[in-house]
């Protein structure tokens, strides 16, 4: 019994020792883990790296602003040498002034190379000249640009378009994920959209890619920070019910030519929209500590303000950077590009089309109405000069297709080829379709929109041979009455061949009633050329 008792004590003693040993081990492990955590915290802090992103959007071939943009990019690179990435949120080309547009935006693509622009979301205007042009020319390897759009199906001419690209900057993996507006079909001609397949919604597809790059699996790609380049309005992105998730650290928006700051995703990532035409540049710092899914990313405005604007002048915060300029070779190349493009533009662009009695300034009601009527008349005249449109009776134009403030922009009493093509810089052809009288009334009525309890006129331009009255019925759609073409009343079942640009006649700018027409045909005459030919035939305007 005593032995058993002694044995029992012995066993109890071993159990106690075992427990104590385990406790010591646990305490040691806790101490080790605490030390390791402290070590990692210290290491992460020591490992924090700064990466600077400089972004433009909606440049639209405004090469006259190229030196200013180049200077801002250069200042960003001087501020954080070797650790700066230059990006665009889309519409680098398309809808461009004559100097670049007349040369299919080759001067702009050359300028992007001179800047060192390396990454861009695909905007809608990159497709102005068709999908084939994007695949064969704009996305050509010689341009050294990674084009991104995660919500476009990658095949055929989009084989060089990617969901994302990764840059190793200051030892960190920075992913850029792109997307184009979900409303692509409303801002491209139907003939072009026939060659485009959308793969889901923009924000959902950006989340899909960002989540994959942040899942800790090195086999499917991994990033330390994710920057989204989305060719969509900043407010649309910020207010979308399907928000960008926490794996997106910074968003550059575009499409609406606005300067918008102070917007954030639901998880707090800044959303910045940097205006248009190269008049603004956004410059942000990413402070990245750690790596992969455990990385910590902080975003700061590099120059104290989210967007640096051209109008800032001497107050431009980017000008206070004191780093010595190492080279101005890139700016010299930019200047040379502008000189060559301007010389080429003068050769064909300074030819006088017609003298005019008024500038057709669309900032005044009279000027706007006169301009829209003139261009609608030109669409009708141009169609009648072709086989496809010989029977046209009415011309239309959407004000959204008119790019500059005035037709006689310099007010010298003459309109040149350059001024006409600057006004109508979008790459549309003139087209025709046949409407019934009832359908034409619906088209005309669609220019009114109810906002804030009142009907607002969208000012659809209609040729001068058309007259009509409008009756408003409270909240119901307006009714077009007493429709007359060439002095003759139009019955509901009359068939009328109408002319307008390819975008408008395929439902663009919300004029979906044109889609009810029949016999749609592209005349293959650029719609700017119809204005030039019409003004030449009239002599003085």
Summarize the structure in short:
This protein has 541 residues and is of the alpha/beta class.
Describe the secondary structure blueprint for this structure.
Blueprint: H1 2-46, E1 49-56, H2 66-79, E2 84-88, H3 98-101, H4 106-115, E3 119-121, H5 131-138, E4 146-148, E5 161-162, E6 164-169, E7 172-180, H6 184-187, H7 190-193, H8 202-212, E8 225-231, H9 234-239, E9 250-253, E10 259-264, E11 270-274, E12 280-289, E13 296-301, E14 307-309, H10 329-349, E15 352-355, H11 365-384, E16 394-397, E17 414-416, H12 417-423, E18 429-436, H13 437-445, E19 448-451, E20 454-457, E21 461-462, E22 466-473, E23 476-485, E24 488-489, E25 495-501, H14 502-505, E26 518-526, H15 527-538
Parallel strand pairs: 1-2, 2-3, 3-4, 4-5, 7-8, 8-9, 9-11, 16-25
Antiparallel strand pairs: 1-12, 6-7, 10-11, 12-13, 12-14, 15-17, 16-21, 18-25, 18-26, 19-20, 22-23, 23-24
Can you describe this structure?
It contains 15 helices and 26 strands. It has two domains: 45-343, Metallo-dependent phosphatases (Purple Acid Phosphatase, chain A, domain 2, 4-Layer Sandwich); 352-538, 5'-nucleotidase,  domain 2. A hairpin with a 2-residue loop joins strand 19 (448-451) and strand 20. The model is unreliable at 1-42 and 322-326 (pLDDT under 50). The protein is 33% helix and 26% strand. The strands form six sheets. Strands 1, 2, 3, 4, 5, 12, 13 and 14 form an eight-stranded mixed beta sheet that branches. Strands 6-7-8-9-11-10 form a six-stranded mixed beta sheet. With 541 residues, it is of the alpha/beta class.
């Amino acid at each position: 019994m005593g032995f058993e008792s002694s044995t029992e004590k012995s066993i109890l003693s071993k159990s106690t020792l075992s427990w104590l040993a385990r406790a010591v081990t646990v305490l040691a492990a806790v101490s080790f883990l605490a030390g390791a955590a402290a070590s990692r915290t210290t290491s992460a802090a020591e490992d924090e790296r700064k990466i600077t992103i400089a972004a433009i959007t909606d440049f639209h071939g405004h090469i006259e602003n190229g030196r200013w943009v180049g200077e801002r990019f250069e200042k960003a690179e001087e501020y954080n040498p070797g650790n700066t990435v230059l990006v665009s949120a889309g519409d680098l080309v398309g809808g461009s002034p004559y100097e670049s547009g007349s040369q299919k935006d080759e001067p702009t693509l050359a300028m992007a190379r001179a800047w060192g622009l390396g990454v861009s979301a695909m905007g809608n205007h990159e497709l102005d000249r068709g999908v084939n042009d994007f695949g064969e020319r704009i996305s050509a390897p010689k341009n050294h640009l990674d084009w991104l759009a995660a919500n476009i199906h990658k095949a055929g001419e989009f084989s060089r378009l990617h969901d994302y690209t990764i840059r190793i900057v200051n030892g960190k993996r920075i992913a850029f994920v792109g997307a184009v507006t979900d409303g692509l079909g409303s801002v491209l001609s139907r003939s072009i959209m026939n060659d485009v397949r959308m793969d889901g919604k923009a924000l959902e597809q950006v989340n899909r890619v960002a989540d994959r790059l942040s899942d800790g699996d090195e086999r499917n790609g991994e990033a330390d920070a994710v920057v989204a380049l989305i060719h969509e309005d900043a407010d649309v992105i910020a207010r979308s019910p399907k928000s960008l998730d926490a794996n997106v650290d910074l968003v550059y928006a575009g499409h609406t030519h606005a300067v918008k700051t102070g917007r954030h995703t639901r998880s707090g990532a800044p959303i910045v929209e940097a205006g248009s035409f190269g008049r603004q540049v956004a410059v942000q710092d990413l402070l990245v500590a750690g790596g992969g899914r455990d990385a910590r990313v902080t975003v700061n405005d590099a120059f104290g303000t989210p967007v640096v604007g051209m109008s800032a002048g001497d107050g431009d915060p980017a000008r206070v950077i004191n780093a010595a300029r190492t080279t101005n070779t890139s700016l010299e190349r930019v200047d040379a590009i502008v000189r060559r493009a301007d010389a080429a533009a003068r050769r064909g662009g300074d030819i006088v089309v017609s003298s005019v009695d008024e500038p057709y300034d669309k900032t005044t009601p009279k000027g706007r109405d006169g301009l829209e009527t003139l261009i609608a008349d030109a669409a009708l005249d141009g169609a009648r000069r072709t086989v496809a449109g010989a029977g046209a009776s009415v011309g239309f134009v959407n004000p959204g297709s008119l790019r500059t403030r005035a037709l006689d922009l310099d007010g010298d009493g003459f309109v040149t080829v350059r001024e006409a093509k600057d006004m109508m810089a979008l790459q549309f052809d003139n087209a025709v379709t046949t409407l019934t009288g009832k359908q034409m009334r619906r088209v005309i009525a669609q220019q009114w929109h109810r906002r804030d309890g009142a009907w607002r006129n969208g000012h659809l331009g209609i040729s001068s041979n058309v007259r009509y009255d409008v009756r408003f019925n409270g909240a119901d759609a307006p009714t077009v009455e007493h429709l007359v073409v060439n002095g003759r009343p139009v019955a509901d079942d009359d068939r009328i061949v109408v002319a307008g640009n390819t975008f408008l006649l395929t439902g663009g700018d919300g004029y979906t009633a044109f889609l009810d027409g029949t016999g749609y045909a592209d005349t293959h005459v650029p719609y700017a050329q119809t204005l030039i030919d019409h003004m030449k035939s009239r002599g003085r305007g």
